[in-house]
Amino acid sequence: MNFSVSDKQFGQNNVDQEYLIFTLDKEEYGIEILKVQEIRGYDRVTRIANSPDFIAGVTNLRGVIVPIIDLRIKFQLESAEINDQTVTIVLNLCDRVVGIVVDGVSDVLSLRAEQIKPAPDFTATLSTQYLLGLGSLDERMLILVDIEKLLNSDEMQIVEKLAEAEFEKI
Fold first, then answer.
1. In the 3-class helix/strand/coil scheme, how is 34-58 assigned residue by residue?
2. Nearest-angstrom CA–CA distance, 93 and 35
3. Residue 103: other Cβ atoms inside 10 A
4. Which of 29, 37, 146, 148 could form a disulfide with 90 if both were Cys (CB 3.0 to 4.6 A apart)?
5. What is the largest CA-CA distance in the chain?
6. What is the structure's pLDDT at 116?
7. 135 CB contacts (<8 Å, ≥6 apart)?
8. Using 50, 70 and 90 to split pLDDT, how confident is the model at 36?
9. What does each C-alpha distance from 62 to 41, 66, 95, 143, 166 come to in angstroms?
10. Could you give the CA distance from residue 113 to residue 115 in angstroms, rounded to a whole number?
11. From CA 169, how far away is CA 153, in angstroms rounded?
12. CB 149: neighbour CB atoms within 10 A?
């Protein structure tokens, strides 16, 4: 079943949507839990020459070559030191497996449509076309990312081709 952004935000008032909450630079972000395949501790990746800066590299996950995206770089945030809290969230998006590196994950939260507000148009580091909205839960403000739109952009076509070329070398 496919829902548009407006369906998720406003059309189904009493249906909870679950989000995996992760942090980047002290901000909390959420992605739909159904897109998450697994959460792994950060492992070293194989860097691919001539790839965009936001591509940390690729890793072999049980025989599947998975491109790894550093969301700090993608969102134009300051780089951070990799530590014990740094994780890779492995996503399954339209039969494409992609990993995203984040500072840490905190929990899975359910939000109702009325708890999600439209994203403002003045976000400097992240284009609002990639946002589902802003989730509000008690005193917390969550930036809800449409991870499929973010990772299915034209840039991701490059990632896929680079990962395929790397796979052919193996």
1. HHEEEEEECCCCECCCCCCCCEEEE
2. 6
3. 21
4. 37
5. 50
6. 93
7. 19, 30, 109, 111, 115, 116, 117, 141, 142, 143, 144
8. very high
9. 15, 10, 16, 32, 15
10. 5
11. 25
12. 15
Overall pTM > 0.70: yes
Q: Average per-residue pLDDT in the chain? A: 82
In 3-state terms, what secondary structure has residue 33? Answer: helix
Q: Which H helix or E strand runs over 117?
A: strand 116-117
Name every residue whose Cβ is closer than 8 Å to that of residue 152 and which is 6 or more positions away in sequence.
93, 94
Q: Which residue intervals of the chain are DSSP H helices?
A: 5-6, 71-74, 147-151, 154-169
DSSP state of 103: S
Both tokens assigned to 27: 């901000």
Round to whole Å and give the CA distance between 53 and 70: 9
- Is residue 96 helix, strand or coil? strand
